[in-house]
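Notes from the 1:1 (GR / supervisor)

We went over the backlog. Supervisor wanted to see one worked example end to end before approving the batch request, so GR pasted a single chain during the call. The sequence is below; no edits were made to it. Supervisor asked that the structure be written out right there so they could see what the output format looks like.
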Amino acid sequence: MGSITYRNKGFTLVEMLAVLVILVTLAAIVVPRFIDAGTRSRETALKATLAEVRNSITIFRNDTGYYPASLNDLSATTAPQQGYNKQAQLKNIDPTDWKGPYLDKVPNDPVAKAAFKYYTTQAKMGQIESSATGKASDGTNYNTW
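Structure output shown during the call:
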């Protein structure tokens, strides 16, 4: 009579535990990098958008001599009638000085998902800030960007 040999076709418990330890270790390294990826992406978009709008305000001011009366003046298809001087006084804009539109569309704050804060007071004339409240992932307040 011949002997019958049995062949194991599965994995041993030790092999399964080794694979599990490797997977858990990889997950512990990779997952934290993606947890706040959405927040970091919105913060990067906020910085880029602020720079774009600030640049448009500067070009508007350089062309007309005045700050826009509102952010919507940056995307207007015709010259706005008035703009602010540094003393926060509305003055008439010469339409031949206007070279707009300076933006295709005025963007919203990507973090707050709301309009930016735009100042037309003498102390902060022409400044734009994020409307988001709270702190960014780097610990700074959004409204200081």
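Supervisor's comment: The CA atoms of residues 79 and 95 lie 5 Å apart.
Batch request approved.
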